[in-house]
Structure formats: C-alpha cells, structure tokens
C-alpha cells in the first residue's frame, strides 16, 4: 500500500483500512489506530464471515457477534478447531494480519497459510 507524504507507516495503514470502512480512531498521541474492539469482527466480515454463517459442520459464527464461534448439534473438537483456523487463514491471506483465538492453550492452536 503506498504511503502518503508525511504519514508514518502505522498512520498510512490506518488510513488505508479506514478507507475500506474499518473503524479507526486517534490515540491520545494523535496517531490513527484501528479500533481493537471492532477490528476482529470487521476483518472477519471483510473476508466473508457473517453472523450466523456456518463455518464447518456443526460450527458457526454467533448470531450476535461474528468473532465468536458456537458449536451446534454434531460439532466435533476437530471441526471446532478448523472453524477457528479457516477464517484466520482467510484474514491473513487478504490483509497480512494474523488473528489468534482467545483464550488459547499452549500447543493447541496452529495454522499455516
């Protein structure tokens, strides 16, 4: 992404994402920042994940909050782990931003784009 004269790299990135509709704000130091509270959900929706959408068999995005995945019926632990990895891989491929699920367990979550 090209940088505008006089903008730091972080400001240029925030300006770029703001232009795409991502919520950004100015910090107390005056720098633009992507809003952490909305960023994960916005990124997931940016790559096509929508509230209530099935990600893998038995696992879907929450009806109320896209970054939350919920298990239904015949969901397995493998399907749930895949439901966490697939959208994160799509976000990283589209934006170079790495999402990690919360909470995490050591050695439990890995993915390779």
The CA-CA distance between the termini, in Å, is 21 Å
Arithmetic mean pLDDT: 76
Structural class: alpha+beta
Quantity of strands, as a count: 5
Helix content: 25-40%
Radius of gyration: 16 Å
Tally of alpha and pi helices? 3
What overall geometry do the principal axes of the alpha carbons give?
A: elongated
Strand content: 5-15%
| Biggest sheet, spatial arrangement of strands | 3-4-5
Run of helices and strands: HEEHEEEH
Low-confidence parts: none
Largest β-sheet summary:
3 strands, antiparallel
Description:
The protein has 113 residues and is an alpha+beta fold. It has helices spanning 9-19, 36-46, 77-95; strands spanning 24-26, 32-34, 54-56, 59-61, 69-71. The strands form two sheets. A three-stranded antiparallel beta sheet has the order 3-4-5, with helices on one face. A two-stranded antiparallel ribbon has the order 1-2. The longest helix is centred in the last third of the chain and has 19 residues, at 77-95. It starts with 8 loop residues before the first helix and ends in an 18-residue tail after the last helix.
Summarize the entry for a quick read:
With 113 residues, the protein is α+β, with helices and mostly antiparallel strands.
Topology:
Elements: H1 9-19, E1 24-26, E2 32-34, H2 36-46, E3 54-56, E4 59-61, E5 69-71, H3 77-95
Antiparallel strand pairs: 1-2, 3-4, 4-5
């Amino acid at each position: 992404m090209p940088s505008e004269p006089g903008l730091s790299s972080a400001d240029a990135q925030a300006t770029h994402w703001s232009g795409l509709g991502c919520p950004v704000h100015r910090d107390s130091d005056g720098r633009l920042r992507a809003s952490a509270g909305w960023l994960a959900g916005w990124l997931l929706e940016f790559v096509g994940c929508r509230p209530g959408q099935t990600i893998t068999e038995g696992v879907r995005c929450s009806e109320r909050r896209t970054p939350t995945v919920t298990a239904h019926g015949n969901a397995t632990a493998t399907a749930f782990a895949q439901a966490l990895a697939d959208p994160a891989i799509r976000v990283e491929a589209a934006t170079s931003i790495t999402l990690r699920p919360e909470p995490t367990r050591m050695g439990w979550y890995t993915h390779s784009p």
